[in-house]
Design goal:
Elements (H helix, E strand, L loop, with lengths): L1 E6 L1 E4 L4 E8 L3 E11 L6 E7 L6 E3 L7 E6 L4 E6 L8 E11 L8 E4 L3 E6 L1
């Protein structure tokens, strides 16, 4: 599984940005997909993740609830993160993440995959 992220960049506080991530490969099933971030000098943290089944739910970090929206396209194995009302503390490298397993294994193991990271900088 390969994750290709796009979006990010520099924006002023109060502005908006959109991140997208697409998973490619064959013979796998993604059960969870979303975004994490790593602010400068801090540990990586969850931003938003979604269950990729038709009834899957979405969870958000408290710090982004009401400002960020994660949308998913199950058929295309894609997620997008719409970020609004951005704050300087949202500045971080954002990583796309997916949990996936092989569709052909009798006892499949879930493996975590990470994208290359994209920088979001929010200026005050």
């Amino acid at each position: 599984v390969q994750l290709q992220a796009s979006g990010g960049g520099l924006v002023q506080a109060g502005g908006s940005l959109r991140l997208s991530c697409a998973a490619s490969g064959s013979g796998f099933v993604i059960n969870v997909m979303g975004w994490y971030r790593q602010p400068p000098g801090k540990q990586r943290e969850l931003v938003a993740v979604a269950g990729m089944s038709s009834g899957g739910t979405t969870d958000y970090a408290d710090s982004v609830k009401g400002r960020f929206t994660l949308s998913k396209d199950n058929a295309k194995n894609m997620v997008s993160l719409q970020m609004s009302s951005l704050k300087p503390e949202d500045t971080a490298v954002y990583y796309c993440q997916a949990n996936a397993f092989s569709a052909s294994e009798k006892l499949p193991r879930v493996v975590a995959y990470w994208g290359q990271g994209t920088l979001v900088t929010v200026s005050s």
